[in-house]
Amino acid sequence: MPAWFLRSTGGLLLPLLLSVAGALGTLSPAALARGTPRADALEAIRQVWPQEHLDSAIRLAHLESGLTPTARGCGGDCFGLFQIHFGANRGLIAAMGIRSPEELLDPLVNSSVAYAIFRQSGWQPWGIEP
Predict the structure, then answer these.
(1) How far apart, in whole angstroms, are the C-alpha atoms of residue 83 and residue 109?
(2) pTM for this structure?
(3) Residue 5's pLDDT is what?
(4) Mean pLDDT by 10 residues, the chain (130 residues)
(5) Which residues contact 109 (CB under 8 A, 6 or more apart)?
(6) Is the distance from CB of 92 to CB of 116 less than 8 angstroms?
(7) Are 74 and 83 in contact (CB under 8 A)?
């Protein structure tokens, strides 16, 4: 059994949700090694988001993209870690100096835009509170 699973009292395997140090129990130690896309993603989130929202931001990025900085969804309209919808956030994105949707594939840029969206609207744009 992988280390990131716990056996519940009923014998079912459940993913282990960790605190900030490893809020993503589904990631192997190798995936968290420095220089991997997921490690870069976690570092970018930690650089941008304040401590009081850090755990939730990491959980949200994991839910939205599996911590994959180059993730694309919504039929190609949502980009990066937090699956930022380029068209729906065009004004904010432009005000931040971002000119193309591909720039949202940079984990630091994506985390910064996500935090700006969060500051305006809370978790509502994602439809969940992580």
Answers:
(1) 12
(2) 0.74
(3) 26
(4) 28 30 45 72 97 97 96 96 96 96 97 98 93
(5) 80, 98, 103
(6) yes
(7) yes
Task: Measure CA 100 to chain center.
Answer: 20
**DSSP labels, the chain:** --TTEEE-TTS-EEEPPP-GGGS-TTS-TTTTSTTSHHHHHHHHHHHHS-HHHHHHHHHHHHHHHTT-TT-EEGGGTEETTTTEETTTTHHHHHHTT--SGGGGGSHHHHHHHHHHHHHHHTTGGGTS--
Strand partners, 32: none
* Spatial separation of the C-alpha atoms in residues 97 and 69, rounded to whole Å: 19
Residues 34-51 pLDDT 10s: 568 899 999 999 999 999
Structure tokens at 18: 């960790």
**pLDDT number for residue 81:** 97
Give strand pairing partners of 84.
79
Question: How many angstroms separate the CA atoms of 69 and 87, rounded?
Answer: 19
- The per-residue pLDDT for 15 is 31
